Amino acid sequence: MTGQIIKATGGFYYVQCADEIISCRARGLFRLKETSPHVGDIVDITVAQEDGGGTVSHIHPRKNDLIRPPLANLDYMALIISAADPAPNFQIIDKLLAILEYKDIPALIALTKPDLADVSGLSGIYKNAGYPVFVVNNLTGDGSDELAGEMSGKLSALCGNSGVGKSSLLNAIDPNLGLAVGDTSRKLGRGRHTTRHVEIFTLRNGAMVADTPGFSSVDLLMMSELRVHNLADSFIEFGLHAPNGCRFQDCRHIAEHGCAVRDAVEKGEISESRYKSYRALHDEIKDIKEWERK
Ligand code: ZN
To answer: Which of 79, 90, 206, 259 has the fewest CB atoms within 10 Å, i.e. is most exposed?
Structure first.
């Protein structure tokens, strides 16, 4: 049988096959291959006659995956960012966006707490960079239908630091879902166990949503996979606003002559804040030695 893993906890994988959910163990084989099934994986399973329990025997090719938290086949990573309280940290947001780009995971941005600060600047920066941006007011529910609509029929992970209003946002989208996620978080306690427990919840409109911990614990480790040359590719608007490229093919967009990216920043086509983040990330990874990477 073939199905999708919707939950992983304590060494068990819960596989949705048509209308039933079958709890499975994974074959030892995966450990030898240094891989393991991820929530979101499409898998083949065999079911034992005696107890109805299954074994995951094969993982279908993934369109993308994250190691931490272990999720595969995401249609969206939704970054939940509050306009204020806490104020957004552009460098962390842009770092995460670069990693997602590098990992082939489409990102969308949900801006919360528009009642506390003007979101037009924030919204402009990320729309200009090419990302879908939604403004959701958790107090009134404004914007939650649009966000839910975009996620309909897709698998999305929601990622946001504490205080950005993720639970309220989930409640606004679907009261049942918000409660379920809140319960899980409470039961497990944030932090220690959250990397091992991942679960997909299905919304009323058919959107599938995985709750994930805050930005800091989402695969920033993968930064070590990024090289200077693919960092620039991970800022999608560089290609968008400087389509003809720079004078030098290996331009790092720092101080080189004839740099189309810096020209676009000067003309205001690429936002200053995104370029600043690029510079900071460039400096962070340029000196990492190959032997330090694994
Ligand atoms: Zn350049």
So the answer is: 206
